Amino acid sequence: MNIHIKNGRLIDPANKIDAQQDLFIVDGKIAAVGAAPAGFSADRTIDASGKVVAPGLVDLSARLREPGFEYKATLKSEMQAAVQGGVTSLVCPPDTDPVLDEPGLVEMLKHRAKGLNQANVHPLGALTMGLKGEALTEMAELTEAGCIGFSQAEEPVTDTTVLLRAMQYAKTFGYTVWLRPQDAYIGRGGVAHSGPLASRLGLSGVPVMAETIALHTIFELMRASGARVHLCRLSSAAGIDLVRAAKAEGLPLTCDVGVHHVHLTDADINFFDSNARVDPPFRSQRDRDAIRAGLLDGTIDAMCSDHTPVDDDEKLLPFGEASPGATGLELLLSLAVKWADDYAAQHAGESPLQRAIARVTSEPARVAGLAAGQLGVGSTADVVVFDPAARWVVEPAALASQGKHTPLLGYELAGQVQATIVAGHVAYERNAR
After folding, report:
1. Overall pTM surpassing 0.90 (yes/no)
2. How far apart are CA 123 and CA 286, in angstroms?
């Protein structure tokens, strides 16, 4: 299908475009920007007047719950949530059941996702067998099956010799190791940020040093091995300072932050709201402000949804017993727009929307090594058209995801997706519902 998207504000951070320009799609590729290519005839015209036309979002952490946890969510429901949220490429962690530690499982997941003809799924393989932190997986075979990197998900490797060997192996073959910095013992069993609020509420705490101790260890192993590491979901000001120094040192390092952490703090637990039970926990306002500053100065490379659908039986429990996680695929764009709006309110005269879009498109694509997140001529036509001013209320009925739990239930957010195009195919259109 030949598609002409006209009259929109085209924002393509990778190609430094922020202007009203038309976009032309032919055979699933971007054929031209601005003027129509010779002989172009549109099968479909989308009027994007008053809308933003941007690359499809690239999400670095979205749990799809298949295989093994279909009672929490299914591939079909989460793929629909992705395109409804403007996400056209997503990276899924390996903590399924069974764990993604064998090529056959990875191939099955990719085949199932491809058959749905919606967002592109890029699995992370397990770094160790069963995520047990003992024996390394066959990384070469998993890469051939379609894995773009290797992760322990939420399971730390307690044996640093095993982690060092994994990094050395990854360095040899040019693989990226994705790690969430968390000490295996400090804060174990904690459910909230270790601070005055957790003390008042009687909740077990996770101190910031659970993150910083792990970061020191990771950096030492990076220096020894030379491996490239992506740090998943930083949460603290102290951790961000360490990452900033490590980047200045020249370590081959990237990092992301969960988009909820850009806006919320431990105070949003309110009166034991289990929807705010997440890992890592929401931290103090100082930590939240440091996250925002890290996004501005580039210390933090990307925002991700950290999409973790949880069913009612595991969420509607006392705070300390509830399973951690929140739905995020359909909130990623709106929360990025909110960060841009908050930034604009503090810096008059600047246009921060391009910077925010970069953090959910071109930058995560660069981190993951994906040919996505940009609209250059010849690139795959993964596009989102959204209205940055349209407001919507976060409520279960508005979410396509099977997971309906988020600490932002009841909030009104700006930024509503009008259409999502994946490889030239209109995968979602709001007015077609």
Report:
1. yes
2. 34
